[in-house]
Design a protein that fits this description.
single chain; 7-stranded parallel β-sheet; globular
């Protein structure tokens, strides 16, 4: 007797968030409709289950023996639209990253359901007659229950009874996906939805009465500002969750960031000729339905933000949407407030420091079309906006756009890819464009170059005074963070009622602690770096792994009593200025003093409103802000970057100094910059002092062409990590030999060599650098490594980065 042939089965390809570059095949259970690409599913993986996304459907075929089936269908309709699936797949291919991990970045984790297991009584369990089955039957007789509720009924015997019941078939375990509730915080600001339905719906008796009461309150308060959700609920005499339900229904919008004035006001600025030309060029491409990348190179204070806002308004006027990327969370809230003032509740704000549930709410507003503008740092790249017409990348040069965790994508480059796939214009803006972007615009013609050569309102660039700190240290005792010139200029600015910004791009009080007896510095036991002294916090901290240690009274090496706290951090600079100018209101902005976007926003508002006289900080103070009363900027040793073994060191120095200097003199009063430098003769410092990007670019591009660095080559970096030093050396040599054999002279393989910081978090680091005239050859060689037995065997020790922004 022959067995009947197997019937064709339905299977799907699922991308799981695991560090593997392939997708997984699963069978679709009988009775299911086949999940569409973009739908999430729960699928067995190893001994557990994982939430993944369907990326394609396979044609019906014979079911392979042992093929596992999907467990739970999370989405009835695709969470991600086809264009986002295509974009994420291209991103994964470009960076040789696992598609499942890329897709996991494309939506907030709070949207993933909370998986829970329910236990159900079977027919065998209902018929069985013994003590164990009777206990289970009594607990589950009314229906399936999760383990916590079963434990309340069964007590200490729960685990044993469940194990026996599953083994004997008396019960079955079913996995269910429970959606996460998104709650409203009392401090959320409530805005009426921007579609104008509020007046009509307030009197619509088909709407729940609590909804109508809230609408009435918000309409009454519309000309007075924005109430917090807690106040709106109190005035309407409804529970706070009513506003959450209204937000999910699209009747109100809830924000953590509040505008300072009512939305919809026209721009107070008249465009300059340069601004008007830039707007016309991009708007023309938008209206003609053609894409293209535009590099908006405008000196500091030239009005680039106003150009962005006009273009966003133009995109909305055509019924489209716009994506506005900024380099850091710290800039998001300030610029988001400007967007809210101009556009009202049609704006969604996305960044990783907001609560996951709030981020999910904002992401869903973009997906539903309730929000047509999304602003945020690199993670906002994945905002699922409908009918996207424009992408803006502000401060496009900033290295913060590169994701340092897996997947290691560059948001600027991928914004260009997203614009290319959608055939829409992408605007890259900067006062200090990256060398690669300017080369693509000015020399290769890949981008359209737009220039803003004058400051808005007739303001002039600040005068820059360079202090040679080598001579300063010879003529003084060498211990003061402030040069004599900077101290004098600070006194003059404060006496005139002006404000000042002081940049020191190192946090803490002392950057290292030295024993004067044995000469040792206090180092992190897990990383090959010195511990930084944070005096206000009262500890030493490693800025690589985050380890904290108490401040010792004696040297741990020799027991010596003479510990010296050397190096200058922002905390020491703040203390020095406060001591020198007792009447001045001094504040500090760095990762220690400002821990959230709200704190950052609050401090900048205080500075803008004149409640802070001197703002000391890291690079957070160097970009994106326009305070007209700032007439002095002090820059302390920003050129220490020049000592780093990285081909972008000069570029980083020029950008940081130029951006910081650009904060001065934006109003009616002339600005001054005091630049303290140990390398005053370096071309990057001289060009930054002269605010001369052309001079810097001419020298740097010549150097890069000579040594074959981007934009004249494609670059990749492989880092080999292991806790055993000998293992790292052997493995990195083996990987380098494999690459050289496969390169066949078409890709240059440099190294291996120890990384700049040779040990981090207890693991030694060696790196291999690859340079190729074409990206296709580079990726092919890297793919051959990752897919080889060597790559599979060493996947946990290898870290491959395409297009690195730093070689440190």
């Amino acid at each position: 007797m022959t067995s009947s042939p197997r019937e064709p089965a339905r299977t799907v390809q699922v991308a799981l968030p695991v560090p593997l570059r392939h997708t997984f095949t699963y069978a679709v259970p009988e009775g299911w409709r086949t999940p569409a690409p973009g739908c999430r599913v729960r699928a067995p993986f190893g001994r557990a289950a994982a939430t993944g996304m369907v990326v394609s459907e396979a044609p019906p075929s014979e079911l392979p023996p042992g093929l596992k089936s999907l467990r739970t269908l999370v989405d009835q309709e695709p969470l991600l639209p086809p264009e986002m699936l295509a974009f994420t797949r291209r991103l994964a291919d470009h960076y040789l990253a696992p598609l499942g991990m890329v897709l996991r970045c494309a939506y907030p984790s709070a949207l993933d359901p909370e998986p829970r297991t329910l236990y159900r009584l079977t027919e065998e369990g209902a018929l069985a007659r013994n003590a164990a089955s009777s206990a289970l039957r009594e607990a589950l007789g009314a229906g399936p229950l999760p383990r916590p509720k079963l434990a309340a009924a069964l007590g200490a015997a729960t685990d044993a009874l469940l194990a026996e019941g599953l083994r004997r078939g008396w019960i079955e375990a079913e996995e269910h996906a429970r959606a996460v509730r998104r709650r409203t915080g009392r401090d959320h600001v409530a805005l009426l939805a921007p579609d104008g339905r509020a007046e009509a719906l307030r009197d619509d008796e088909s709407l729940p009465k609590p909804f109508r009461k809230v609408l009435s309150v918000l309409i009454t308060m519309a000309d007075k500002g924005y109430p917090e959700a807690g106040l709106a609920a109190k005035l309407a005499r409804v529970p706070l969750f009513t506003l959450s339900e209204m937000a999910e229904a699209g009747l109100v919008e809830l924000f953590k960031t509040a505008p300072t004035c009512l939305p919809g006001r026209p721009s107070p600025h008249a465009l300059s000729e340069d601004q008007a030309r830039a707007v016309a060029a991009v708007r023309g491409a938008m209206e003609q339905g053609r894409g293209g990348t535009f590099l908006l190179y405008g000196i500091t204070g030239s009005g680039k933000t106003e150009v962005y806002l006009r273009l966003i308004e133009a995109a909305l006027a055509t019924g489209g949407a716009a994506l506005y990327l900024v380099p850091e969370i710290s800039l998001t809230s300030v610029l988001a407030r400007r967007l809210l003032e101009r556009l009202g509740g049609t704006v969604a704000i996305l960044h990783s420091s907001m609560g996951e549930k709030e981020r999910a709410r904002q992401w869903l507003r973009a997906r539903s079309g309730a929000a047509r503008v999304t602003i945020g740092p690199r993670s906002a790249l994945f905002a699922p906006l409908q009918n996207l017409k424009l992408v803006v990348v502000d401060e496009e040069h900033d290295p913060s756009y590169k994701q340092q965790d897996h997947p290691r994508y560059h948001a600027r480059d991928m914004a260009i890819l997203r614009g290319t796939l959608a055939s829409i214009p992408v605007v890259l803006g900067s006062a200090t464009p990256s060398v690669e972007s300017y080369y693509n615009a000015a020399e290769e013609g890949k981008y359209t170059l737009l220039t803003l050569s004058e400051r808005a309102g007739g303001a002039l660039l600040p005068a820059v005074e360079v202090v040679d700190m080598r001579r300063e240290y010879e003529e003084t005792d060498g211990r003061d963070a402030l040069s004599r010139l900077l101290a004098s200029r600070l006194g003059e600015a404060l006496a005139a009622g002006r404000q000042a910004v002081v940049l020191r791009n190192r946090t803490g009080f002392a950057t290292f602690v030295l024993c004067r007896r044995c000469g040792k510095t206090l180092q992190c036991p897990d990383c090959a770096v010195s511990l930084t002294h944070h005096r206000k916090a009262g500890h030493l901290r490693c800025h690589y792994c985050g380890r904290r240690a108490a401040v010792p009274s004696l040297c741990p090496e020799c027991g010596g009593e003479f510990l010296q706290f050397l190096g200058i951090g922002t905390e020491r600079v703040e203390e020095r200025i406060a001591a020198a100018f007792p009447g001045a209101r001094v504040a500090r902005m760095d990762r220690d003093a400002v821990r959230s976007a709200q704190e950052y926003d609050r401090l900048w508002l205080d500075f803008e409103r004149g409640r802070v006289d001197v703002l000391v900080g890291t690079q957070m103070v160097a970009k994106g802000h326009d305070v007209h009363n700032v007439t002095l900027v002090g820059i302390l040793s920003a050129d220490f970057i020049l000592g780093m073994p990285d081909f972008r060191s000069a570029e980083r120095t020029f950008q940081l100094v130029t951006q910081a200097a650009g904060r001065a003199g934006r109003g009616a009063h002339a600005g001054t910059v005091v630049l303290q430098s140990f390398h005053p003769d370096h071309y990057a410092v001289q060009a930054a002092a002269a605010q001369d990007f052309a001079a810097f670019y001419a020298k740097d591009i010549r150097y890069r062409k000579m040594v074959g660095y981007p934009p004249f080559s494609a670059l990749a970096r492989i880092e080999v990590r292991h806790a055993d030093h000998a293992r790292v050396g052997a493995l990195s040599s083996e990987v380098a030999a494999f690459l050289r054999a496969g390169a066949e002279g078409r890709v240059r393989v440099l190294g291996p060599s120890p990384a700049f910081v040779p040990r981090v978090e207890g693991r030694y680091r060696h790196q291999i650098l690859l340079k190729s005239p074409t990206r296709a050859r580079l990726r092919a060689l890297l793919a051959s490594l990752l897919d080889s037995p060597l790559g599979t065997r060493t996947s946990r020790e290898l870290d491959v980065e395409v297009d690195p922004v730093s070689l440190l």
